[in-house]
Amino acid sequence: MAQGFDTTDALHPAPAGETAMNAEARRRIGTVLRSFYESRVEAQPLPDSQIDLLLRLRHKERDRRRGD
Predict the structure, then answer these.
(1) What is the pLDDT of residues 14-26, one digit of tens each?
(2) What is the distance between the alpha carbons of residues 42 and 33, in angstroms, rounded to a whole number?
(3) Alpha-carbon distances of 16 from 8, 12, 19, 64, 68, rounded to whole Å
(4) Top-ranked range on mean pLDDT: pick from 13-17, 39-43, 58-62
(5) 7 contacts 25 by C-beta, under 8 angstroms
(6) Would you list the domain boundaries of the chain?
(7) The three-state (H, E, C) secondary structure of the chain, written as one string
(8) What is the longest distance spanned by two Cα atoms in the chain?
(9) Residue 23: φ, ψ to 5°
C-alpha cells in the first residue's frame, strides 16, 4: 500500500499500534500549525494580568534563592 494521506483514512482508523499518517504528513501538518500559531498567537502582546503574574513569580523565585 502506498504511503500518504487517503481521504478514507479518516473513516477507517489505523489498527492499534499503527499510525494513520506517515511521518512526512505529520511533519508537514506540524510545520503548518506551528507557523499559524506563531503568526497569530506569538505576535499578540501579553495582557497586563499575565505580566503581573510573571513578575510575581520572578520575585518569588528570587526570594527563594536568597533564602537558601
Answers:
(1) 677 766 778 899 8
(2) 13
(3) 17, 12, 8, 47, 50
(4) 58-62
(5) no
(6) 7-67
(7) CCCCCCHHHHCCCCCCCCCCCCHHHHHHHHHHHHHHHHHHCCCCCCCHHHHHHHHHHHHHHHHHHHHC
(8) 63
(9) -60, -40
Which grid cell sits at 18? 499503527
Stated pTM of the model: 0.39
CA–CA distance, 45 with 38 (Å, rounded to integer): 12
Set of cell numbers at residue 37: 500559531
Q: Residue 65 is which amino acid?
A: R
Quote the cell numbers at residue 59.
520575585
Written as one letter, the residue type at 66 is R
